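User: Hello, can you help with two protein structures?

Assistant: Certainly.
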Amino acid sequence: MELIPVLDLRAGQVVHARRGERGRYAPIESALCPGADPLALAQALVDLTGTRTLYLADLDGVLDGRPQAALLRRLVQAWPQLRWWIDAGWQRREDAWRLRDALGSAGDAVVPVYGTESLADRAALEALQDDPRAVLSLDRRASRPMDPAGLWDCPQLWLPTTIVMTLERVGSGAGPDLQTLPALRRQAPQVTRWVGSGGVRHPADLAAGAAAGADAWLVASALHTGGWPAGRVSGKEQATGTAGRHS
């Protein structure tokens, strides 16, 4: 099981995502370092977890259609050795490619995440079928799909790496959703890597997520409390607690 730390970005700061209620997101208060500066918090998450992957949710892009391109470039160029999963509200593949092209060689570190909340239509998802980097996010809030293009109803088009983004669990402290992911797995046997999101409070929740079929989990709030065991991301120590499943 892999833990993937998350930074939610709004207006140049890291904000504390809670239950998908985006109008109420405030600058994060983290035990890892003072302030809400994205570069400082990215470094703190890398130091805490030893991760090789960071997930960026650019809420300016998702909500307003104006990705924070300059900030995204600064982050990727600061740590080109990391994999950067970025959701900036891409409607089509070309939107994400513009950022990758602007980064030059550093663009190789970008893994574009396409959310059902944002994708323009079915044709936009079909166009991603031959892109080995692309990640699909099945977005949901209040137990309802966020899916104007009806892509939850096209499991045959879900990508090999697919996220189950249960926003009502994000920042809730209520524990992970362990029912939705197994149900979706049965619909899309071509998906080879399932990523959960939201609700993880401690390493035991990661083990429960692995038992439910997740290969990785996106985590934010729990890492900022100061109580997460340093370095517990993946590898032998983590794998021994995942009911025989690995990422």
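That covers the first. Now for the second protein you mentioned:
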Amino acid sequence: MQDAWPEISAVVAAAPYRVQVLPVDAGRAERCRTALGLTTQSWLGALVTHTGGLLVDQGWLRVLGGGHAGLPDVAEAADPAAQLLTVAYDVLGGRFAWTQARPDAPPTVHYFGPDVLAWEDLGQGYADWLYAMLAGSVTEFYASLRWPGWAEEVAALSPGEGLHTSPPPSTVEGADLSRAARRPVPLTGLVAHHGGRG
């Protein structure tokens, strides 16, 4: 089988919104890929090998790859105790993890949202999930969490920053993010603040 990166790259190029491919440190990416036992024939292995990560739709979604300044690589973000392989964060501190819902089921991508504070099984394998997100699903997936002017605000952040909102989106008062106070904070700290372990 061939390296999956040309296939991913073609989907990136055809995306309906901007997707930035972050540069990769080859040594770091190789350590990550080896630690996870991945090959470049898989979409995850190819993404780890060829990118530091992807910033999708002005950076609203940060897909993890081989690591970049402010963003962990996939191996660093893994939570072996909870059997979660974190594959992406969003700007509000949501987390996507690839895991098995049941021991007899294939792994699927699950989402822990800052608005519901619970895991949801998206029912897609990694490649199907990433294809959908690159092909336009981000817009619909986050429709209820966006506010007028979000694109400019999110684009101004570094890859390692997210937006802390107060009141939080999980509360009745914070559900309308256009009325919430928003400030940049370190993204990994924001993810930890919302929780989602296990």
